[in-house]
Amino acid sequence: MFDIGFAELVIIGIVALLVIGPERLPGAVRTASLWLNRIRRGFNEIKAEVQQELHNDQVMQDLKKTGEQFRDDTQAIARDVKDSAGKLAESVADKAQAPEATPDKTTGE
Q1: Contact present, 103 and 109 (Cβ < 8 Å)
Q2: Can you list the residues of the chain whose pLDDT is less than 50?
């Protein structure tokens, strides 16, 4: 996280020992590590929430795209059904207008 080497840690330890004192140094180190862990945990939670929101946004975009594709497909199917029904209606109307001459099987003509 921080780019601190061993030499810097030794210097920080010596300064802390001189400023805080040997009696209170272990408690101060514990308190500092607790605060650092809390801060790190908070940043990790925020990072996870942002990643979750980005994922949710991507899922919503995919759902919207799928919905639009579904709507387009259903409109195309509806047009095809309407065209087929119109052609069938025309065919039935044409057959009703011009009856076919079929021989009568009972009379043999």
Answers
A1: yes
A2: none
